[in-house]
Design a protein that fits this description.
Elements (H helix, E strand, L loop, with lengths): L1 H30 L3 H18 L4 H4 L2 H33 L7 H16 L2 H12 L3 H27 L1 H9 L4 H39 L2 H11 L3 H29 L1
Amino acid sequence: MSDKFFAKKRWQSLLTFGCILLLTVLFITLTEYNVMKGFTSIPKAVTWSITNFYPNEKSLEKLPSILDKLIETVLISIASATVASLFAGFFAIMGANTTKVNRVFAVLSRGIATIFRNIDVAAWALILLFAFGQSALTGYFALFFVSFGFLTRVFMETIDEASTDSVEALRAAGAGYFAIIFQSVIPSCISQMISWILFVIETNIRNATLIGILTGTGIGFAFDLYYKSLNYHAASLVVILTIIAIFTIESLSNYIRRVIL
């Protein structure tokens, strides 16, 4: 029995690998991509980066302006995640199986979360450009919508996993709906929810760089401006500061997680 099982698994693995290989060859053919040229261009790209893509003395003069853009990006990322978490908490309570008011609200909450979560942040930015133009507000709402959809989903799962037993105990004791929410659901889920909010803040800072290019704001716009004007030294400074900011936020998030979890 075990031999047949492993033989079947091997054939499935070979079939999957064959399909992936076939699709790869098909797409390379359709796009006319030169594989050899792609590999041989790597040394040239590395050489170019070493000789051009690094901060110099002149680019450091732009450091205050770049830092202002970076701070703007970080603040927008944090604000969009924290405000989205408030709305997500409400919709998650309405949509979670443990705390739902009725089936209609639960289906509606889950449907809204699915829509907002599955539309990519870049797509949201392009949609919102028609309403708000190239502004910080466009980037904020793009990050807010994606953060809201994601947090609503994970908050629902957190509520259902963490608070089922305590909710049932309070219901058996005759506690009201709001008493259950504030005495059981929130206390049992708050640490995990904060962890998810910190994760979204990290993700938003990464996404905000791309969004800034589309909306003409923040650190993404600074990089796009310097890169298109062939000021590669300043563009490299933008990249380095962005990486430092991401790692700093991630380190702080990991520290907070260790404290609260």
